[in-house]
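Quick one: structure tokens for this chain, please?
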Amino acid sequence: MPRKPDLPPALRPGAEAWLPLETPRLILREVTPGDFDDIHAYATDPEVVRYMFWGPNTRRVTRSVLNGWLKDQRRWPRAVVNMAAHHKADGRMIGAVRFAVVDPPRLTCDFGYSFNRAYWNQGFATEAAGALVDLAFRRLGMRRVFATCDARNTSSWRVMEKLGMRREALFRQDTQAHDGWRDSYLYAILADEWAARDATA
């Protein structure tokens, strides 16, 4: 019988918590019950959810999502971590980011993000996503990080390109969005590519 692969250190019992993460303008932290209004503000915006498979939310849906995140936070470590993107200057949650170890034996993880439209085009998604990629490689020993988005979501895939991720695939009609089946891009980067990018920065 083949030996079951070991879990990466980040997912082993007793693993050290790596939250919160701090960037120049953001704190990526666990959510709190008081984040409800900020979550609901972006989750009800048709422009924010335009390329998502969820939303616009009702208050009941937002409450259910938040309660699920709060329940998940009772466990550490966990493979999927949803975080509040807390704006230092404004003192509010301006979006959410997700980090997930999706293939532990292959040290592979992915991430996602959603931000309040009032904070678009200011580099916050790039800042938050960059912190997650750096976390994956420098602290957690991951080998590969990827992310996907609706192929029409130019702003999202440009964030990935700014991080040095390469477009590896186009999945045709792989996800059902609000306006029907969507095509998705997959972007990825390897640990040695991230290190080389840092070395030349």
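DSSP finds five helices and eight strands in the chain.
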